[in-house]
Amino acid sequence: MLLEQLGRIDLNLLIILQVLLEERNGSRAARRLHLSQSAVSKALGRLRDTFDDPLFVRSAYGLDPTPRALDLQQQLQPILLSLDNLIQPPAFDPASTEREFVIASMDSAFTLFAPLYLSELKRQAPGIRLRYEEWTEHSLTEMSQGQVDIAFTVRENCITSDFRLDTLPNAICQRLLAIDDLTCLVQQDHPALQETDWDLARYLAYPHVQTYCEGRDRWMLDHKLAEQDLYRRIEATVPSFEAALRMGMHSDMIVTLSRLYARHATQVYPLVPLPLPVALDSISHLLIWHQRHEEDPGHRWLRETLL
Fold first, then answer.
1. Would you state the pLDDT for residue 4?
2. Are 172 and 250 in contact (CB under 8 A)?
3. Which of the two residues, 307 and 139, has the higher pLDDT score?
4. CA angle, 171 as apex, 169 and 174 as ends, to 5°?
5. Would you say 305 and 175 are in contact if contact means Cβ atoms under 8 Å apart?
6. Are 75 and 13 in contact (CB under 8 A)?
7. Start and end of every HTH lysR-type domain (predicted)?
8. pLDDT on residue 22
């Protein structure tokens, strides 16, 4: 049946037909439907016109359905059940779900936050599937198109930055995970560790490795330095913080990164922290998702578990 034809049918009539088939009595059907007997009679007349059949024949016991009405009853029950399920709030059972969630994240955010939630996530939902993708300059667009469910990202708390919290699209919801700042890591025998006066001049004198993320290879730090006509000597640009750590471990290049991530890195790599000799605004670690998922029970469970 075409949608245009279906649009000419009053679906309330199907409910009345179902109740008449169950009650086989016009008065009882009217009471159950909270309608007058006259209204039920008029509805039955319209049903007869729609299906081109009497549908019911009066008898001493009430209303006897015709063969056509009995045939309709077999089809009508699953249809009305499906409509009832359609309007019920969606349900989500973590214990039985096999749903896949797509999570975008920088490698540093994955390292910081995955250990905090992963075991609980799998304990509650052993059948869940997680697909991690790299956080890139395209991730926000992919999120708006429904290709990414949720993401871990970082925003710069600098009023002149293009990557502030308030530059996120209005349709993106956010939850603050942590406030952080930047620090430096160097290899264990780096000459900077012998410096008696570790200052900005010494920091700029050494080579640096830069992480390319979210479509840019210059950060708030570089823009702040440029305001003073100062620049780092970046000798390598790599696609991940993990790669930057390895570069720093085997060279004199300085790795500048989040202090929270640096704490993890010094437990895994033979690197030593040095303070960043530049006054900078903080950065914010965020969990973000599109507002279309706000009322999705599965997505709500995911957010609550991640947090």
1. 59
2. no
3. 139
4. 80
5. no
6. no
7. 9-66
8. 86
What's the whole-model pTM score? 0.71
Out of 164-178, 184-198, 266-280, pick the least confident: 164-178
What residue ranges define each of the domains in the chain, with the CATH number in brackets? 3-87 (1.10.10.10), 100-178+285-306 (3.40.190.10), 182-279 (3.40.190.10)
Q: What percent of the chain has pLDDT over 70?
A: 95
Ramachandran angles phi, psi of 133, nearest 5°? -125, 155
Q: From the CB of residue 250, how many other CB atoms can be counted at a distance below 10 Å? A: 8
Write the pLDDT tens digit of every residue in 85-139: 666 667 789 999 999 999 999 889 888 898 889 999 999 999 999 999 999 889 9
> Are 253 and 209 contacting, i.e. CB atoms less than 8 angstroms apart?
yes
User: pLDDT by residue (tens digit) across 149-177?
Assistant: 999 999 888 887 777 778 888 899 999 99
CA dihedral 156, 160, 164, 165 (to 10 degrees): 120
| Contact partners, residue 67, CB within 8 Å, separation at least 6 | none
Residues whose CB falls within 8 Å of the CB of residue 39, separated by 6 or more in sequence, listed in order: 30
Burial annotation 174-211 (CB, 10 A radius, 16+ → b, else e): eeebeebebbbbbbeebebeeeeeeeeeebbebebbbb
